[in-house]
Amino acid sequence: NAGVTQTPKFRILKIGQSMTLQCAQDMNHNYMYWYRQDPGMGLKLIYYSVGAGITDKGEVPNGYNVSRSTTEDFPLRLELAAPSQTSVYFCASSHRVLLPFSGNTIYFGEGSWLTVV
Amino acid sequence: EDKVVQSPLSLVVHEGDTVTLNCSYEVTNFRSLLWYKQEKKAPTFLFMLTSSGIEKKSGRLSSILDKKELFSILNITATQTGDSAVYLCAALYGGATNKLIFGTGTLLAVQP
Question: How confident is the model at residue B96 (pLDDT cuts 50, 70, 90)?
Answer without folding.
Answer: confident
